[in-house]
TrEMBL record:
Keyword check for Acyltransferase: yes
Residues covered by the Mannose-1-phosphate guanyltransferase C-terminal domain: 72-143
Protein name per UniProt: Transferase family hexapeptide repeat protein
Keywords: Acyltransferase, Transferase
GO molecular function: acyltransferase activity; nucleotidyltransferase activity
Entry keyword Transferase: yes
InterPro entries to which the protein is assigned, alphabetical: GlmU-like (IPR050065), GMPPB_C (IPR056729), Trimer_LpxA-like_sf (IPR011004)
Length: 220
């Protein structure tokens, strides 16, 4: 179970919500109260550094935000981040320092750590993506089961109940996800792991692994 803990998956020095995340043991536990936390945190931001562009939407003055994006609060866009053409951010989101949200990407109720990249046609919902995690073009997090039942984290022979209907994916630091992959509800990918393109991933992928069409091998 240690490999699923927040402090194991993430270097918390790379997110402004480090103190918030430390309140929880596992990342999915942080999803329920994320909206309220972002509002509280945002109201404490220095308006010499951030612009309050609409209710509960704070954008750092060094961030680059294209005119064609849609931004809904609560939302914090940090220093040096880039929100590209036609991105759709639906609220309860933190976009970390130097992170990239690309063209036609959609995000809701999620934390993107610093230098995370979701650059092309990605959907990120009810998820946490670690430092320098990268989603290839068209890769998505699926956050709702087809039968609408509560999401369970499958870790080998152990099933962990989240008691949540909507849970996306939790990517550790430096995770690479290949193009057009689907991360099914409750997927956890350990740090420094790679997911091959066109993969359908479910359950837990251990750190320093390569996932290819359901086969997992340790990196050498």
């Amino acid at each position: 179970m240690n490999e699923l803990k927040i402090t194991y998956l993430y270097d918390l020095s790379h997110t402004i919500l480090n103190e918030y995340l430390l309140k929880f043991e596992y990342p999915w536990e942080a999803l329920n109260c994320l909206k309220d936390e972002i509002i509280q945190f945002g109201n404490k931001l220095d308006l010499n550094e951030y612009n309050l562009i609409k209710e509960n939407v704070w954008v750092h003055k060094t961030a680059k935000v294209f005119n064609s994006v849609y931004l809904d609060g609560p939302l914090i866009i940090c220093e040096g981040a880039e929100i590209r053409h036609s991105a759709y951010i639906r609220g309860s989101v933190v976009v970390g320092k130097n992170a990239v949200v690309g063209n036609s990407s959609e995000i809701k109720n999620s934390i993107l750590f610093d230098s995370t990249q979701v650059p092309h046609f990605n959907y990120i919902g009810d998820s946490i993506l670690g430092y320098k995690a990268h989603m290839g073009a068209g890769a998505v997090t699926s956050n709702l089961k087809s039968d609408k039942s509560l999401v369970v984290i499958h870790n080998g022979c152990t099933d962990i109940k989240t008691n949540l209907k909507k849970v996306g994916a939790f990517l550790g630091d430096f995770v690479e996800v290949g193009c057009n992959s689907v991360l099914n509800p409750g997927t956890v990918v350990g740090k420094n792991s790679n997911i091959y393109p066109l993969s359908s991933v479910r359950g837990v992928v251990k750190e320093n692994s390569i996932y290819k069409q359901g086969i997992v091998v340790e990196k050498r």
